[in-house]
Amino acid sequence: MKRIFILKASTARTDNKFTIKDLPGTSGRLDVVCRCILSSLLLSEGHRPDTIFYAVLEGPPRPSITVEVNGEKIENLPRDELKVALILKELLDPEKTPDTVSGFKLMNKGFQDIVEEKLCESETYFLHRAGKNINEVLSGFPNLKRPQLTFILGDHIGLNQNDIKYLVEMGIKPISLGPKEYLGSHCISLIQEKLNRVIKKKK
Ligand SMILES: C[S@@+](CC[C@H](N)C(=O)[O-])C[C@H]1O[C@@H](n2cnc3c(N)ncnc32)[C@H](O)[C@@H]1O
User: Fold this and answer.
1) Best of 153, 161, 173 to mutate for ligand 1, by most ligand atoms within 8 A of CB?
2) Measured between alpha carbons, how far is 130 from 80 in angstroms, rounded to an integer?
3) CATH number of 1-203
4) How far apart are the CA of 202 and the centre of ligand 1, in A?
């Protein structure tokens, strides 16, 4: 069972003109992307081969670019945000074309491209406080028709009304972790933990 996360990073820069010293202030919040990469994939020892993370970078100067981080293909996942940011800095250098680095890959795909691709092959939800209780959704887990689960979430700004309208029109349902608003990276950790429990129960 693959777990897939799609983060819409609405301000994240699409080149490498940011400084590691002031990542939040110079990168359009790529720090949020790095944090979400780590919460999707990192374990206390090693990383999760069952998870693929996507960040759709929509900031200047050449939106949109999608970063894929595939747990099955990673050799060594850095254990801190700034080291992840250094990998992104290398990948996003417009002068060079190393579009893959050990499990990390850049793709010329936008939000709708990646959502529609995953919708064809997985049970897909978007994260929203006003959605259906995730525990109820996951209790139907053994009956899932497709072998993958995809969760779409917003960054520090959140999904806007147009995003939500589009997702609902695509038939994608909102699911909620409760009335409190969490950081995206915390939402990912909570979902990973909940999935561990249902997947264990199923076995
Ligand atoms: C930091 S929050 C976004 C905050 C932003 N001010 C907003 O109004 O959406 C980042 C993302 O985490 C997800 N999220 C946060 N809290 C949630 C909750 N309680 N249930 C489901 N998703 C949640 C949403 O997808 C949200 O876009």
Assistant:
1) 153
2) 32
3) 3.40.1280.10
4) 29
The domain locations on the chain are 1-203
Predicted confidence (pLDDT) per residue in 113-124, tens digit: 999 999 999 999
- Is the distance from CB of 125 to CB of 188 less than 8 angstroms? no
Give, in order, the Cα–Cα distances in Å from 194 to each of 7, 52, 190: 19, 17, 6
Task: Render pLDDT for 108-166 as a digit per residue (tens, 0 to 9).
Answer: 999 999 999 999 999 999 999 999 999 999 887 766 667 799 999 999 999 999 999 99
Verify whether ligand 1 is closer than 6 Å to residue 153 (CB atom): yes
Q: Are 28 and 13 in contact (CB under 8 A)?
A: yes
Q: Which two tokens stand for residue 41?
A: 């994939």
Kindly report whether the peptide bond that precedes residue 63 is cis, defined as omega within 30 degrees of 0: no
Q: What value does the mean pLDDT of the chain take? A: 93
Q: Tens digits of per-residue pLDDT, 173-195?
A: 999 999 999 999 999 999 999 99
Instruction: Report how far Cα 161 is from the mean position of its chain's Cα atoms.
Output: 19
For ligand 1, the distance from its centroid to the CA atom of residue 32, given in whole angstroms, is 13
Mutating to test ligand 1, I would choose from 127, 152, 156, 163 the residue with most ligand atoms within 8 A of its C-beta, which is 127
With tokens 């790095």, the residue in question is 34
Nearest CA to ligand 1 atom 12: 184
